[in-house]
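input
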Amino acid sequence: MSTAAMTAPISAPREDKSGFTRDRAVWGAIMLAPYVLVFAVMVVYPVAYGLWLGLNWNSYRALFADPIFIRTVVNTIIFLFVAVNLKFLIALLLSGFFVQQRAWIRIVLVLFILPWAVPSIPTILSFRVMLNPENGMVNQQLFQWFGVMEGPGWLTDPTLAFVCSIFVHIWKSLPFWTLILITGRLAIAQDLYEAASVDGANRWQQFRFITWPSLATLYVTSTMLSMIWTLGDFNSVYLLTGGGPGDLNHVLATLGIRYMRNNNLDLGIASIIVAMPLILPMVFVMVKRLSKGAEA
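output
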């Protein structure tokens, strides 16, 4: 072997213009493969299979011809608008109360969180028992305290049943969003409030010029996320009223279950897929806002 051959340098791994070698690319693909596989199995396949089942156009014609569907769409829009906005307005107010550093407020906060920590099924069913017009605790208390012989039909009157469904949804999810806003308030530098107090700013001015500008992005992003979750929440309506009375209080999530219980899978899938035009724009806007936040 020649001396030149013995002293020749070992060839370095080929490297492209971006600085990545082929070995690094291979190892990257190997490390990424499990995540891609899980994403394909858990997300891509169920969504694609659902969309494939929903390609029966006759189902959509039958769905739009069903008078219950039109009322369901109206119910869903009202439910989303009232429940989400009222929930976040209350959460914003409560976050200002619970953020105070006092021992008794911490104890109250723990009690306030309990409804969110308890599973949905037993808590909502307990509301169903309490609101029973005949022997429920609420009407019994109305009789004992105020002498009301015949209390309201909480779950038999369509309007009251719908209002009760919104109330239960807010009661169940309010602690979670209040905690989110408390976290946002705690991230605000206290120096800003101290400086504002020195300058003579009152509570409203501190909220307007310090708290709200700091919470606005979190508030809007959480609102959109809550709208997506609320659109898929069937527990509050289905467990409390079953979509009744007389199928008058269905939302899109419970209408799909109604069709499936009647062995009409195509209509059930179609009633769920029609919600996609509402969900996709919110997901797009929310991801775009989160991307801007990450870049900032």
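quick obs: The chain is about 75% helix and 0% strand.
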